TrEMBL record:
It comes from Alteromonas profundi. Coiled coil: none annotated. HAMAP family: UPF0745. Residues 1-85 form the YcgL domain. This is YcgL domain-containing protein GTH32_12255. Pfam families: YcgL. Transmembrane segments: none annotated. InterPro entries: YcgL-like_sf (IPR038068), YcgL_dom (IPR027354).
Length: 97
């Protein structure tokens, strides 16, 4: 099974997987608007890979088969300020005055 992977300039780490190059028919309009102009990253032969970076292979195949696309969101960013406050024994959110 092949799929085309696109990135967006609007959000680093967000990727859109579709079953064929330039096949966006099943992608909802609201998602297309949010994603912006897709930039082709690569065409991937899913079956040739045991694992995929940052994507559950079974979920990807299921989404492509059932919905016609898969949206990979960027990993959640760590809240470094909250971690630092916790390491100092302070509440993780500052008091609001």
């Amino acid at each position: 099974m092949l799929c085309a992977i696109y990135k967006t300039r609007k959000k680093q780490g967000m990727y859109l997987y579709v079953p064929k190059k330039d096949h966006f028919d099943d992608v909802p309009d609201v998602l297309k608007d949010m994603f912006g102009k897709p930039e082709l990253v690569t065409i991937l032969a899913i079956d040739k890979h045991k694992t995929l970076a940052g994507v559950d292979k079974k979920k990807l195949i299921d989404a492509l088969d059932n919905e016609g696309f898969y949206l990979q969101m960027p990993p959640k960013e760590d809240d470094l300020l909250m971690q630092h406050r916790a390491s100092l024994g302070l509440p993780t959110t500052p008091d609001k005055k």
